[in-house]
């Protein structure tokens, strides 16, 4: 196991001013936390985070990343808490460890269900600091290196995941060496036979071709030198996985696969790259269609190189990459090398400058969001997509993917419609939170439920998922119907009472065919809505009843006398006589205009009052969810005006009010009422009720008023 001083030394080798004390603290803390925990191999667990840290020192990462690597399993696997990590190591390392803990939980989740795509999205969404991804990649690399201790089923799953997610991720981040190792290790575990066969063949070919590689290297070096180009030429065999992929892609056998050698020609300048290319092409015949110039057209991840394939000595196809030293560093070590190169290679202290280290980290994040071919462009698009998503968990660890901006209400409906309909509160990460909280990636959400609830209609305009919206609409419709049914029953009970006939559900059911309704509920709701007259119902149940052809008329004399309310039928019983058109009015204090998000408040007997959703008056109805009615504008701004109210602060000078009125008139607003109150020596408050076509119109007027010198401020008033 790596000793404490070894870890520090590894970091100091590339970063002499590294925070030694921090590394020591992390080492001791993780060692104590993991204690005697063992890995599947039987080794002490603590060896694992150290190996992960060691891998990252090879990438020359900053000490915060190294410390986070040492600590990466403490929160999930030991008694250590995030609070403690934050306190001991500061918020930066705390955030890294937090990200790693969340990703680790994701591992557990993905085991349970095939949520691969979500998994990948969440991985990237959680890792808003690319260093989290780097530690995760190193973690995965070490786990892959020690995979043989795992049971076969687990091995297969982890290898698949590595090949699908982690290896490509390493590639995108420019860490090709790590990508190749991850690929080979996955391949080895997923298809041990094919892996064995290919490595055996590769060994044989190498034995035969050793001379060939040397020959080509020597030959090329000499030819370039003759033209005055000092070049470093190196040949290498391809990796087993890349050979395998090529065999699969081209459906060729290993014997047919000739270009299993790649040569790299490293020169000093870009100019020399092209001169070297000329020499190569005049020495050996080139294979058509294999020439690519990534120097004149670099890949978006800044990869630059010339690729070509020639028929070399012994009719052997040879792949060649020609590039400068700087281009080579970028290709091998990712964007880190690129940034370092630009700033001068020989100054070791440059890494002490943390902000520079961050620059390339940040750039790597940007790179993750870019692509360099159509396939990667798709990936890029997907990446954008997941920036529009948040991923949350149920307390049992189920992953729920939601659009960004989603609330616990959306979450509840995503889990189950019943959960949404009965939601009354929630806990986010164990803490009670409002149902309108915007959810964050990795949140664990627990919905508090109460039976017999109806979701407030106002929720419909606050949720972001279609499922929640549709369910809320359905549930509120049901609630509204229930309300009409109740009203209908009241109306009928009184009507039967006045007619002197007993009212009973059974009797009413018997009359359903005569009323042409399917159920008792239908009749009650129809009466409640005013679509059916109570007198008709009485006559349907008691055909002998001669109470006239309508309750309104026949009731009048009796009704007036009975409850002393004059026109008892219409004033005593609300909504009677209405058809489906509810009387509608607009919020008396401020109105509402098309373009506003609106909600209706039902006042039995009066109808519905329309409020903009932001109206303060709505608070008064918070405890009466049954009165909230889902309403929407069902017309475009048409030939109708709507009331609105604005409040201005105007400078006290002659003619200022005239100027204000002029602006409104010029913009086709109608002033209904003006209220003025002098506030100070200099200012007057002016409240104006006006009518406008829609919100856009109103906003245009407000904007124009704001531009006036005599107006110091303008606000819209909404109840
Ligand atoms: Mn780990």
Automatic annotation (TrEMBL):
Record has Cell membrane as a keyword: no
Region annotation (Disordered) ranges: 548-574
CDD domains documented for this protein: ACT_RelA-SpoT, HDc, NT_Rel-Spo_like, TGS_RSH
Gene Ontology MF: a single term: guanosine-3',5'-bis(diphosphate) 3'-diphosphatase activity
Reaction equation(s) it catalyzes: GTP + ATP = guanosine 3'-diphosphate 5'-triphosphate + AMP
Domain ACT: 645-719
Sections of the chain in a coiled coil: none
Highest taxon of the lineage: Bacteria
Domain HD intervals: 45-144
EC number: 2.7.6.5
SUPFAM superfamilies, sorted: ACT-like, HD-domain/PDEase-like, Nucleotidyltransferase, TGS-like
Pfam families: ACT_4 (PF13291), HD_4 (PF13328), RelA_AH_RIS (PF19296), RelA_SpoT (PF04607), TGS (PF02824)
GO cellular component labels: plasma membrane
InterPro entries documented for this protein: ACT-like_dom_sf, ACT_dom, Beta-grasp_dom_sf, HD/PDEase_dom, HD_domain, NT_sf, RelA/Spo_fam, RelA/SpoT_AH_RIS
GO BP of this protein: guanosine tetraphosphate metabolic process; nucleobase-containing small molecule interconversion; response to starvation
Keywords: GTP-binding, Kinase, Nucleotide-binding, Transferase
Domain TGS: 388-449
PROSITE patterns per UniProt: ACT, HD, TGS
Bias type Gly residues, positions: 558-569
Function per UniProt: In eubacteria ppGpp (guanosine 3'-diphosphate 5'-diphosphate) is a mediator of the stringent response that coordinates a variety of cellular activities in response to changes in nutritional abundance.
Family statement: Belongs to the relA/spoT family.
Full protein name: GTP pyrophosphokinase rsh
Lineage of producing organism: Bacteria, Pseudomonadati, Pseudomonadota, Alphaproteobacteria, Hyphomicrobiales
